[in-house]
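[recover] target loaded
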């Protein structure tokens, strides 16, 4: 059989019923074989069922799902994916739906295996126990304007919206996810809305994430923490992330072992442990971002270097974590060259533990420049724990009953400079242990 007048291989021309009852797997496979490399497979409106994974091994094929086209595994399907793709430069275009028939099949919508150059555009993936998209050892891909919802509760895997991983030396390079709505509210335990990980030597390189919204699951009665990550991106270089929003997870975004990355307009609300976490990061800038109501720290920076928060907002971390005496809106630990420039820190809630606006702990060359501090509870505006050195606090504008402007905790401080800052009435200026503190006027450089 040949393609129709539009050049499409319509699966109904190959015997698919689309009646929500018949196993159409053989007809779909026949259309894929007939289309061959570079061909187009078309799903017209209808509900197509199948029992095994649909294999896509030819290069350059395009799959088009018309409005009203739904693909769904039959009950008892043994497939771990609805589509298993090994071909290169394969495209899947919506606006159709891949329904995983949750409760009847343990599937993800797509499994891309070393399938470079794939595209998923405009599709909805729902009710999949494993998740939406699983891509292993693949690069140059594009995921655009997708919706993933209703996944999780698998006995074999906790669930993820989009999961990309490497298990060798290959890099994931030149990829983008632009436009994704991931609803993880059906999860009951650990998983991820968006995850990029590596178990080998490969790294994610030259990637872009934009316009991604991730909704976490609601904590159960008595829970104070969760293990669900809104987004986790590890082992990565030269990544741009903008307009990412995550709520109700362990953290909105964890960026691990990252180099030369640019983040902007990241929003996290009511995540149970962190807002934004940077661990082992180098040369990362975060601009115009807002973290509100994180469980421990709004921004948490550890073992990192050359980190800048520019014009960012941190508001009301809610509690110290288990085993922690202190918690802070912005925290940097064992890190070098950390700059907090502009932006706003708001602390209006507190527990019995000790709350801080900005905390530098074992930091070398830290800067807090031109930042506004607001609050209605007793807290230290800035805490510097020793041994820290070369710390500049300049042009700060506090309001509210902070306990102290800067508390130097511990010993071994060196070159702590406080300049051009205003003390609100009734609270202490610079206090605490430590030497090497200079109070100056005039502008301090970055």
């Amino acid at each position: 059989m040949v393609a129709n007048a539009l050049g499409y291989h319509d699966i109904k021309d190959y015997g698919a019923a689309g009646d929500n009852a018949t196993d159409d797997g053989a007809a779909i496979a026949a259309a894929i074989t007939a289309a061959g490399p570079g061909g187009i497979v078309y799903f017209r409106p209808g509900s197509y069922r199948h029992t095994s994974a649909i294999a896509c091994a030819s290069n350059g094929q395009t799959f088009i799902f018309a409005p009203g086209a739904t693909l769904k595994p039959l009950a008892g399907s043994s497939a771990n994916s609805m589509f298993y793709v090994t071909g290169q430069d394969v495209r899947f275009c919506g606006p159709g739906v891949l329904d995983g028939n949750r409760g009847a099949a343990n599937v993800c919508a797509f499994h891309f295996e070393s399938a470079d150059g794939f595209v998923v555009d405009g599709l909805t993936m729902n009710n999949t126990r494993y998740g939406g998209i699983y891509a292993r050892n693949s690069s140059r891909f594009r995921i655009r304007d997708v919706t993933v919802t209703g996944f999780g509760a698998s006995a074999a895997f906790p669930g993820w919206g989009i999961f990309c991983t490497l298990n060798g030396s290959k890099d994931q390079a030149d990829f983008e996810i632009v436009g994704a709505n991931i609803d993880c509210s059906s999860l009951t335990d650990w998983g991820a809305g968006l995850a990029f990980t590596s178990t080998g030597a490969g790294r994610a390189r030259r990637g872009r994430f934009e316009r991604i919204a991730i909704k976490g699951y609601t904590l159960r009665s008595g829970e104070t923490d969760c293990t669900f990550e809104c987004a986790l991106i590890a082992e990565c270089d030269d990544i741009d992330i903008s307009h990412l929003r995550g709520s109700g997870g362990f953290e909105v975004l964890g960026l691990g072992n990252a180099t030369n990355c640019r983040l902007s307009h990241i929003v996290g609300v009511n995540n149970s442990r962190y807002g934004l976490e940077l661990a082992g990061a180098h040369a990362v800038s975060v601009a115009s971002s807002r973290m509100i109501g994180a469980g421990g720290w709004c921004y948490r920076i550890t073992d990192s270097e050359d980190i800048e928060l520019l014009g960012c907002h941190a508001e009301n971390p809610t509690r110290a974590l288990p085993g922690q005496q202190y918690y802070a809106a912005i925290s940097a630990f064992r890190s070098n060259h950390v700059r907090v420039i502009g932006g706003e820190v708001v602390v209006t809630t507190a527990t019995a533990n000790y709350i801080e606006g900005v905390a530098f702990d074992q930091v070398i060359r830290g800067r807090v420049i031109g930042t506004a501090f607001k609050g209605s509870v007793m807290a230290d505006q800035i805490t510097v724990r020793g041994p820290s050195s070369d710390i500049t606090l300049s042009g700060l504008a506090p309001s509210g009953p902070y306990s102290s402007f800067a508390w130097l905790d511990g010993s071994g401080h060196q070159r702590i400079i406080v300049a051009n800052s205003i003390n609100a009435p009734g609270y202490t200026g610079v206090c605490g242990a430590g030497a090497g503190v200079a109070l100056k006027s005039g502008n301090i450089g970055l």
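[recover] notes: The longest strand covers residues 228-247.
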